[in-house]
Amino acid sequence: MSIPHIPYIIDNEKIQSKSSTWIDVLNPATQEVVAKVPFCELSEVDAAIASAKKAYKTWRNVGQGTRMRVMLKFQQLVRENASKIAELITLEHGKTLPDAEGEVGRGLEVIEHACAIVSLQLGEYAENAASGIDVYTLIQPLGVCAGITAFNFPVMLPCFMFPLAIAAGNTFVLKPSEQDPSASLFLVELAHQAGLPPGVLNVVHGGADVANRLCEHPDIQAVSFIGSTRVGTEIYRRASNHGKRCQAMMGAKNHCVIMPDADKEVALNQLVGAAFGAAGQRCMATSVAVFVGKSQEWIDEFVEKSKLLKVNVGTDRKADLGPLVSPQAQARVRGLIKSGVEEGADLLLDGSDIVVPGYEKGNFIGPTIFKNVKADMQIYREEIFGPVLCIVCVDTIEEAVEFINANPNGNGVAIFTQNGGDARYFQNNIDVGQIGINIPIPVPVAWFSFTGSRGSKLGVLGPNGKQAVSFWTQTKSITARWTHHERSVNTTISMK
């Protein structure tokens, strides 16, 4: 059986790259090569940008109603093909099918939000703002935009970018992760089937050279990035230095505070899912649990609940977590677990050497729990991006807030409590962009903006919601005076 070669896409056409550099796309559970993806030639990237620039001349003038109807058709096609999309995610990423289906659902939510473009892209008008002077604003697209996405959500992250950008009248060049590109590519094909004209949405593949080209090319107006802090910082610097509007959503160290008055069963069950779901490979995963006061008595019970999780290939619908995306990711997480032991943290549950029968070559790591973790330990300083939870114990909510605020990241945080006063104190004093109250992973619905902060975000405007509309558009203010001159009317009837 031949191995498929992933194409890049220009003008709605699949094109085989002339690149001499191709890498294997692996099934993380078996190490089977399921596809090969190119690192596109820079001339191919330039061609994709040129195509998008040409398409922008007409797409920007397409009526809002027409753009809305394309998005409506797009969401219908994604919904009809949800199972196939989820299977592609599981094949190349490894996450369980239910988790993959949930990802498709979150992506759909963003597409549905883009269907509201007719009410989202509205300006303002003031008649007689000054005597005889009217002032109004136009909310217009930017031009050619680009998106660079990470491997962990190959459908949801592109949906955080191109649907709203395109609905607002921009054209777009997407660079999905080279580790699991097929689901992203199929998503784009469905957008084309929905009625996007050639050139409005193009796809290129590659590594740093391709990303740098998107950041530096004079015809790119805005760049959106979601991924690691190291790469995101460089993307933001490079794009900004070349005059681009840029947003970079980056790494995280998300905490969950367990108060002694919390509903114990709810809190512990939610914490298990937030820490170990998707094998911890999500930027909003809970990677630190802060047990306050007497809630520390629940830690042993939490460990026992975690032991019940089933680790298996993602196609097993009874599995709670599948493999990590690559052997390199597995080796890195194992190295961090080893460092935690060496630095003196208490290893309560070790999943570093788990083996799944029948899938001995899989990149599996089981749930792993450390207690008595200190702020200077490597397992706390770094984003592990695996099913590893650090436990910290404090006496008061004030100590918990102080500890969390000392961490440089600000993506997400949660608290479990039945005390409204504590919840209000927490939300007002915590310095993190997204807060969950009795919700462990506080990603808001798509019509609210993704509001990570501090070390987790560069750029003022985040994806989704009103901030995304502002990011993908520019505002023009018009101040106008029109003077009416009365015309004399000749009422004389000519007689002949």
TrEMBL record:
<dbReference type="GO" id="GO:0006210">
    <property type="term" value="P:thymine catabolic process"/>
</dbReference>
<dbReference type="InterPro" id="IPR016162">
    <property type="entry name" value="Ald_DH_N"/>
</dbReference>
<feature type="domain" description="Aldehyde dehydrogenase">
    <location>
        <begin position="16"/>
        <end position="478"/>
    </location>
</feature>
<dbReference type="GO" id="GO:0004491">
    <property type="term" value="F:methylmalonate-semialdehyde dehydrogenase (acylating, NAD) activity"/>
</dbReference>
<protein>
    <recommendedName>
        <fullName>methylmalonate-semialdehyde dehydrogenase (CoA acylating)</fullName>
        <ecNumber>1.2.1.27</ecNumber>
    </recommendedName>
</protein>
<dbReference type="InterPro" id="IPR015590">
    <property type="entry name" value="Aldehyde_DH_dom"/>
</dbReference>
<comment type="similarity">
    <text>Belongs to the aldehyde dehydrogenase family.</text>
</comment>
<keyword id="KW-0560">Oxidoreductase</keyword>
<keyword id="KW-0520">NAD</keyword>
<dbReference type="InterPro" id="IPR016160">
    <property type="entry name" value="Ald_DH_CS_CYS"/>
</dbReference>
<dbReference type="Pfam" id="PF00171">
    <property type="entry name" value="Aldedh"/>
</dbReference>
<dbReference type="InterPro" id="IPR016163">
    <property type="entry name" value="Ald_DH_C"/>
</dbReference>
<dbReference type="GO" id="GO:0006574">
    <property type="term" value="P:L-valine catabolic process"/>
</dbReference>
<dbReference type="InterPro" id="IPR010061">
    <property type="entry name" value="MeMal-semiAld_DH"/>
</dbReference>
<dbReference type="InterPro" id="IPR016161">
    <property type="entry name" value="Ald_DH/histidinol_DH"/>
</dbReference>
